[in-house]
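Worked Example 4.2. Consider the chain below.
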Amino acid sequence: MNIYDIEETLKKEIENISEYIFNHPELGNEEFQSSQYLVDVLKSHGFDVEYPYCDIPTSFRAEFKKGEGRKVAFLAEYDALPGYGPNKDEVAHACGHNWIAASCLGAAITLSKLENISGTIVVIGTPAEETTGGKCELVMKHAFDDIDAAIQMHLGAENNINVVTLAMDSIEFTFKGKASHAAAYPELGVNALDAVQLTFAGINALRQHMKADARVAGIITDGGMACNIVPDHASCQFYIRAAQREYVQILTEKIINCAKGACLMTGCEMDYRFFENSFDDLVYNEELRTDLKKSLNELGICSFVEDDSQASGSSDIGNVSHVCPTVYCELDTQANPKVYAHNEDFLEYVHGTNAEETLHIACKAMATTALHVLEGMKL
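Applying the procedure from the previous section yields the following structure tokens:
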């Protein structure tokens, strides 16, 4: 049987994977039930599994070796998001990571059933894409050093094989001042909240000198305890993004200088830390992208958006792409009107009958491109 025929025999099981993960949503780095379930499925199909992997409790690496040759990896995600349901207190898969997990396992299992191929089929379980970025940690621990190609797909609002992901730093500033009575002895205080506000002012002044692709978004996480006390402690967090990692580093240094300037103006002391992993921009391997697009064309996906640069977020798959040939693609949910990831309406299109067609297209297309890698595609 060919890839398409094999995938057809696995359709119900692949759909069940998606439904199980959807019905058991867990936050990043807490995906114990989801990761164990995926490991058990892979073991049942003859994959050798290391779990936990790289000392990350909810990460795993599964391999199916069929002779000597290349290693191709499918990158499963399975963390969910908070803030859904009638009271906005439920965890849910509003980014469709249940679909990603199912499509990656489906493609890998399908490929493992194919006769007369040589190489190793790998599934790497990558936790916490929505928060700390599990792939960043896996890259730092050399998990992709022996991988010849990495493949992943995502659901989205359109068919897009030109997805842009921005490099990103996550920085937190903590200012220390001196408390005093805000009315009786204001002259004795050193206002840490002023330093936070001046940092925001400095960044806002910097915006007119940023490149067009740069994005800086921030919040105040600690602004004092009472109006009649000069705040002696205040903090704020920022996401700093741009199309290239090199420019993010330049911009981050300028923003640190804004915080240092706020200290000079207020007399505060300041510490900073990177509170999440730094994400890199996504670098495509053109041979993989061309091949995956051809595979999708053969499955009836022929129309793609041309430019994604105006609607860009960040993802830890960018870090993988800097150390390993990588391809990433979004498939249209086919919702009308369009729905977008992280919106509550997106939940209706990441599982069940609304997601079946896209799920099986992804499995077949990724398995086909992975087969071409194992067969010696130029990378």
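Residues 3-165+280-374 form a domain with the Aminopeptidase fold (CATH 3.40.630.10). The longest strand covers residues 167-176. Compare this with Example 4.1 before moving on.
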